[in-house]
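User: Structure tokens for this complex, please. No commentary.
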Amino acid sequence: MDELRLIPVRGVPEIQPGEDVARLLAPLLTQLARPGDVLVVTHKVLSKAEGRLVDLTDVQPSALARSHAQAWGKDPRQVEVVLRESGSILRMEGPVIVARTRHGLVCANAGVDRSNVPGESVCLLPDDPDASASRLYQALETALGFAMPVVISDSFGRPWRLGIVNVAIGLAGMAPFTDYRGRTDPHGYKLEASLMATADAIAAAAELVMGKTDRVPAALVRGLELSGSPGCAAELIRPGEQDLFR
Amino acid sequence: MDELRLIPVRGVPEIQPGEDVARLLAPLLTQLARPGDVLVVTHKVLSKAEGRLVDLTDVQPSALARSHAQAWGKDPRQVEVVLRESGSILRMEGPVIVARTRHGLVCANAGVDRSNVPGESVCLLPDDPDASASRLYQALETALGFAMPVVISDSFGRPWRLGIVNVAIGLAGMAPFTDYRGRTDPHGYKLEASLMATADAIAAAAELVMGKTDRVPAALVRGLELSGSPGCAAELIRPGEQDLFR
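Assistant:
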């Protein structure tokens, strides 16, 4: 493996609901992208374009939302939206609600986020991030004339570590994992259970050139040697029966 | 932020116990590294040099180790080593023991690893990864004539996601986080609880150019704009009182 380059995609304008994201990105990527690149896009670009915004002034908080908000100094309307986006709640004994979203993603506040959103609205996760990734992948292939894997990223906290790192919540055009299983190391010892979540590592890496305040919502990763059959980000979610911490 | 480069450090020979890692890396880094680079090294380089290897033929497994090994088809001597390296056990109802190491790191099998180790030995985590990082940082500064932050990485599983990503278990010369708190986004909305675990993102990124089978145990990350006061990887560990999942 030679070196990798992480290239910020600058000049992406503020996204309006209904925007065609591929059409917006294509002129920038025509200049910048090359075959072999992987595109990473923060989910908010897709969420905003898909109209996954909720105006809090329209939200009537439930009793549970009001109770939690009062306990922790939160906006009850925003808490209500979190509850609505949750398939189930893992923890809500503190200010952060750890929820499993309808997609099966375990994250803080069900991915509901107020930052980088104008006014009194909040941004939700895309309804189907893998489908969003596939649509973008196909549209960009048409626009650019070559296929470019797409990673849709979001920032997740971790149960036993502080701070957040980005992971892949949507994926198209590449395998989510690099499977070292079955290979041997230089000593001939079989590598078991060495399944690198490559799409997550790519998302984490891309955040180093993107930035929550910089209006750089996308990046290219150049130089990867990808292997395996293309899949989706849903494959990165640990199935319930293997979940030791539900 | 301009683009980042992830550069593999090739030509690192197999590490023997007692090896001076800085002396081993310095000739390679003199060629390759520049001021501003961050060095990422897989923990095994430090662990092997520090003699953190256990010959399984010397290990007498306990009853608990034998019981777990029998249930899951494991080597009872290796299970015994896992138990010895654990401060506490979170889960051992399945083949993987999820333990909190003596350092406070929550990971599979207390970081005990048989791959990339000759014969019937296993490799442990460094006794004090932050101290290992500091020693390497200081020795390389002397050897190279400039200071280069050091990240010591290891591969961790995640409770709700499949596959592994790398995190920083040792750190010197840089802040573990990039703190977006107190900043505002382009809409003027305050970014709360946006603490990017930059050292973990760097570790994850570096793994994309390192590889479990390639004998590339180190990489340089070039182009980062680091901020904040230097700290250590122990700061990335969530304190017990904030741990919702112990």
